[in-house]
Amino acid sequence: MIRLAIHGGAGDLAADQTDTREHRAALRRIAEEGRALLQAGASSLDVVERMVVRLEDCPLFNAGIGAVLNRDGMPELDAAIMDGRTRACGAVAGVMRVKNPVRLARAVMERSPHVMFMGSGAEALNRELGLDEVTPDYFITEERFRQLKQAHARGVIVLDHEAAFTPAEPTSGGFGTVGAVARDAEGRLAAATSTGGLTNKHPGRIGDTPLIGAGTFADDRSAAVSCTGTGECFIRVGFGFEVHARMSYCNWTLERACREALEDVRRLGGRGGCIAIDHEGNLALPFNSTAMYRAWMGADGVIHVGIGTDDVD
Questions:
Q1: Which residues are involved in binding substrate (predicted)?
Q2: Which of 21, 49, 155, 280 has CA 20 to 30 A from 248's CA?
Q3: What is the 3-state secondary structure (H, E, C) of the chain?
């Protein structure tokens, strides 16, 4: 009973002015690769890492190449991964020279005695472990530089898919935080998330993505969860662990636990959504923004792709 879901960020945008064809194609292609790996017997942990690596390497999303830029025009990348079988986890924050932050997050989990590294220390560990290193300009795209200039001009901090630009200047490329959740043939759950954060954010800001129990969480007894949206509010809710707790202690369904946790986010002024799979293979993909870029495979074995609420294919 294999299952998977991926996301490419959330926010509010004018759907009729945003060309999402490339994003849909990329989400479908990556989800299909994940499905093939699961069908071949790969572990959920290997699959979520692989799908997030592919999303980090795609310049259409806010992770890895194409990550958004902070106030000073620099990329600062965060990532986390968690194994639902053992609750082992690894995370990195504020890195600028790590080619694939999710790979380093997994290395932190498996090759160090710690859970989380930040900044120059994380980059030194990446080098020490022989993982791929790049210069910060590797991540910067023309689209992201343009978006930063617009955000500077308006004095705003911009969410993944945010309508912070005028109708005459729609954002046509370069979107959201990425994540993946999976259930493999042995019933093991895993989650991974990666992001560049918010356009025009204050240097050093860290959101919910690398915080285990907030933006990333997995436990085989309950669910695997990856979040996207207003990170500060997801942190305050403790979103991932909140879903686990409501399922474990209140015997709530995955759908209800995610919906109620997202309502807590809304009450705090946050927007966004999550992708989640429970131990029985049920999926939940709720969001309270106008869009959440997502793809998934449920019980029908078919890859579905959606952006808004009414455009699923």
A1: 205-208, 228-231
A2: 49
A3: CCEEEEEEEEECCCHHHCCCHHHHHHHHHHHHHHHHHHHCCCCHHHHHHHHHHHHHCCCCECCCCCCCCCCCCCCCEEEEEEECCCCCEEEEEEECCECCHHHHHHHHHHHCCCCEEEHHHHHHHHHHCCCCECCHHHCCCHHHHHHHHHHHHHCCCECCCCCCCCCCCCCCCCECCEEEEEECCCCCEEEEEEECCCECCCCCCCCCCCCECCCEEECCCCEEEEEEECHHHHHHHCHHHHHHHHHHHHCCCHHHHHHHHHHHHHHCCCCEEEEEEECCCCEECCECCCEEEEEEECCCCCEEEECCCCCCC
Q: Does the annotation flag 230 for ligand binding?
A: yes
At the top level of CATH, the class of 3-306 is: alpha beta
Q: Which of 177, 193, 209, 216 is catalytic?
A: 177
Judge whether 235 is annotated as a binding position: no
Q: Catalytic annotation on 177?
A: yes
Q: For each of the chain's 313 residues, which pLDDT tens digit applies? A: 999 999 999 988 765 557 889 999 999 999 999 999 999 999 999 999 999 999 999 999 999 999 999 999 999 999 999 999 999 999 999 999 999 999 999 999 999 999 999 999 999 999 999 999 999 999 999 888 888 888 888 888 776 555 444 433 333 333 579 999 999 999 999 999 999 998 899 999 999 999 999 999 999 999 999 999 999 999 999 999 999 999 999 999 999 999 999 999 999 999 999 999 999 999 999 999 999 999 999 999 999 999 998 888 8
